[in-house]
Amino acid sequence: MSGIEVRDLSFGYNGILILNGIDLSIDRGSTVTLLGPNGCGKTTLLKTINDLLKPASGSVVIDGKLASTMGAGELARVLGYVPQDHRSSFPFTSFDIVLTGRIPHISTFSSPGARDFEEAHRALELVGAGHLSDRPYTQISGGERQMVMIARALAQDPHFLLLDEPTSYLDFKNQVKVLKTIRSIALRERVTVIMTLHDPNHALAYSDRVILMRRLPSEADKAGPHLGLRGGGPSMGNVVAYGPPAEVMTPENMEKAYGMKVEIFEHNGRRIILPV
Ligand SMILES: Nc1ncnc2c1ncn2[C@@H]1O[C@H](COP(=O)(O)OP(=O)(O)O)[C@@H](O)[C@H]1O
Ligand SMILES: [Mg+2]
User: Fold this and answer.
1) Range of the structural domain that residue 163 is part of
2) How many structural domains are present in the chain?
3) Whose CA is nearest to atom 27 of ligand 1?
4) Which alpha helices (DSSP H) does the chain contain, by range?
5) What number of other Cβ atoms are within 10 A of residue 54's Cβ?
6) pLDDT at 110
7) Low-confidence ranges of the chain (pLDDT < 70)
8) Mutational pocket test of ligand 1: of 11, 13, 82, 198, the residue with most ligand atoms within 8 Å of the beta carbon
9) Nearest to 83 by CA among 140, 35, 141, 42
10) Residue 221 has what pLDDT?
11) pTM of the model
């Protein structure tokens, strides 16, 4: 039973339904992109998978175990999470930041051992950031910080890597570099990546599967009354489609998610998506 199963999950903030009817089955070893408009609940979904937020109903099962019963330490040994904002004002070196990723594997009252130092070095090398090892985290570029945080999550030696907008704040070239690195790590290390992206063309190019999401209509009256939440509607779910990018990101589905018309072109066997 390896993989992540999200079963009929719903979640709300302050009594307002944000996620509804989420059913997903994510296999080991694939790269999955969450795509959808601002505020549709991508970050919220990552946090419910990571058990940082408790679902109003439904469940998350990770490698056959209910996430809600796992506890932070056990979860951190299978699941690495890189939130969107990760600033540190202390000038720790990149290596020290990555080494903190080993905490879930170090028993209480112990110090990091040789194995932990090795794993941290290996993680930095994997993301191509070995040369940043001694540099203060506060003095490296946005793209480099992103790689260091991914290395930190990899040092946890996780089965799953949740990345919230790994390309935000990066320039064109660094976006592509980070996405290619993520993809190759997923393949080589057999890590399942679940990431949120904003650029549909990146989703097309760098994912095995896309989860295309939409916002629940807030004005909808048919609340999730069983949950005591307003918004949504009993049959209204966030997931427009889930599957291979080319099958999911059709003009019809993109319009359902974003409320805008797009065209899809093919060039040298690659797909390009553009607004009409
Ligand atoms: N801590 C919070 N308290 C109340 N509402 C929130 C909170 N975090 C997010 N929201 C709301 O939940 C919705 C989904 O947010 P989020 O998951 O961040 O969307 P996305 O990541 O897709 O842009 C938005 O309407 C947002 O305003
Ligand atoms: Mg977000």
Assistant:
1) 3-275
2) 1
3) 39
4) 42-49, 71-78, 94-99, 114-126, 142-155, 172-189, 200-206, 245-248, 251-258
5) 11
6) 86
7) 219-235
8) 13
9) 42
10) 42
11) 0.93
